[in-house]
Amino acid sequence: MGIFDVLFSAFGPQNWWPAESELEVIVGAILTQNTNWSNVEKAIAALKNSGLLSLPALFEADNKTICTAIRPAGYYNQKTKKLKAFADHIIHNWSGDLDAFLSRPLPELRRELLSLYGIGPETADSIILYAAEKPIFVVDRYTYRLMTRHGLYSGHYDYERLQSLFMNALKPDVPLFQEYHALVVKLGKSFCRKEAICQDCPVGQRDI
DNA sequence: CACCAGGCAAGTA
DNA sequence: TACTTGCATGGT
Hints:
This protein is mainly α.
């Protein structure tokens, strides 16, 4: 039994990403940067209520309008710039065709995402895995915590290194990667907070 | 009151 | 290259 099986047995399917469209995944991925998901839900609900959850609407709306809607998610000035930068890119470079953008080969898509303002490795990979549904493993601080505390990784936080541990150990499998990342986050929220030190962590000493 | 949340960009040395 | 710092709200 590897880590995945233990997490799945302990927590069951997480059914990520909670969103109704590709764009909602992308917007959520940007809004959740260093931000509690419950706050993101409020921001996304506000965007929907204001009719702002579309590429043209995000592109055309005043910064102030978007700021007001996404305020609960924090960093609203920066995140407004990020949302507009994404909408701008798809509209001007892809004629607003989000599906065409997401349908490209994974390495190209990843490079292009990373070139955009406000999209770093975790946000890019979340978009690739949950919106484009292509097989890449999403790493985050919880992944780092999990791996270091179980002696499977040492050294400072290095996104690419952590990612390759999983990618080298697992066959590319979109549903598996989707569920795995969600379960790691679930574990982190449940047990691996700073003060908890994984006291009741179900993982124990296991391989990836 | 302090600390954290499903990071990233920009500045410094 | 390798650290810092700013960004900001809402829950515990």
